[in-house]
Structures are given as structure tokens and as C-alpha cells.
Amino acid sequence: MTLPIVGYGDPILRKESQPITKDYPELKQLIADMFETMYAADGVGLAAPQIDRSIQLVVIGFRPYDEKTDTYGPEDERHVLINPEILEERGKKEYFNEGCLSIPDIHEDVLRPDTILLHWFDEDFQEHTEEITGMFARVAQHEIDHLHGKVFTDRLSPLRKTMIKRRLNDVMSGKVATRYRMKRKK
Ligand code: ZN
């Protein structure tokens, strides 16, 4: 089942979300619904606050890209992050053009480290501590920001923020049309 996506301006996107345990009700179904919602909207990542749940749960799915051969892998690389924590930023910082399903129509270059040391639990509550890099690291950082009440536009320079202010206001007042379902304003 696809779920409606919460838009920029909704207070849940500014809240610190809560860690969860194995007993979280219907977790497998929720994860399946989040993947379905993300793929239906052509996203590569989705954090639980974006579907109106203030919990530390993220899904990620993208086609791996090989720079050397300039080709995409045959299958999606998928990850579920539960209670993720960035232990260390590593590697060099680089710009990458990001967008967000909660902030339709806005794409901006965001500076983040290309490699991080990440601790998380997967959908079976297996514990991981791994150095991750590339697209996985990029999307993970964007989604983990959502768990802490942050969105990618917060990371832009004051000048860029000023330049996109009107478009952010349009998103807040629901003036931006999307192909996917967004949660209606209360
Ligand atoms: Zn986002």
C-alpha cells in the first residue's frame, strides 16, 4: 500500500524521531509500504517522518552505478536502516544534486562527506557497523537528517536559501503538484 507523503512545512519533519525495538507493531508491513511508496514516487530513499511516523526507520533503494564502465547494475541495491547513527564522517566532502519527496520540484547541490562510518540495525534487527560510501552514503545521510528534524535545504548557503524561499513557500501552501499522493494539510 502506498502511503501519503508529508510535505515541507509539516511540523513532523522538524521533530526528533524515536528509536524503535523489534516489537514495533507490524514493522515488516510498514517497511514494505515504505518501499512501495518510495518506488511509486521515483524516490531513492524515504524516512519514516515523511510518512507521518516519528520513528527512526529509513528505506533506501537505487540502481548501483559503475563509473568505470558508465553502466547501471541489473538490480536495485536496497537497504533498511533502523536506529541509524553516523559514528564518523570520512573521505572528502563533495557536492551532489539532491531532491526530496517532501520538497517537490527543488533540486540543489548539497555538500556532504562521500564516506561515513555507520551503525544501524537492518529489517531483521541484525546489527551493522560498516564504512559506507557512494550513493548509499549520500542517501543515508539525507535520510538520517530527516530523523533529526532536518531537511536538505537547511544545508544550503544563505544565498541559495534566499533564492529558493518562494518555491519553499509554494510547497508549504500546497501549490506544487506531484504525481504521487501527499498528505493533506490539517
Ligand atoms: Zn528527503
Features:
3 helices; alpha+beta; binds zinc ion; 5-stranded antiparallel beta sheet; two-stranded antiparallel ribbon
Secondary-structure map:
Blueprint lengths: L26 H14 L4 E3 L9 E6 L2 E2 L4 E2 L4 E24 L2 E19 L5 E7 H14 L10 H15 L14
Bound molecules: zinc ion.
Detailed description of the structure:
With 186 residues, the chain is α+β, with helices and mostly antiparallel strands. It has one domain: Peptide deformylase (Peptide Deformylase), CATH 3.90.45. Helices cover 23% and strands 34% of the residues. The protein is built from 3 helices and 7 strands. The strands form 2 sheets. It has a 5-stranded antiparallel sheet, with helices on both faces. A two-stranded antiparallel ribbon has the order 3-4. The two termini are 22 Å apart. The model has no long low-confidence stretch (mean pLDDT 95). The chain binds zinc ion (ZN).
Brief overview:
With 186 residues, the chain is an alpha+beta fold. The chain has three helices and seven strands; from the N terminus they run αβββββββαα.
How many strands appear in the DSSP assignment? 7
User: What amount of the residues lies in strands?
Assistant: 25-35%
How many domains? The number is 1
The CATH architecture term is Alpha-Beta Complex
The structure class reads alpha+beta
Which strand order spans the largest sheet, edge to edge or round the barrel? Answer: 1-2-5-6-7
Shape: globular
What's the overall average pLDDT, rounded?
95
Main β-sheet description: 5 strands, antiparallel
Low-confidence residue ranges:
none
The Cα radius of gyration reads 16 Å
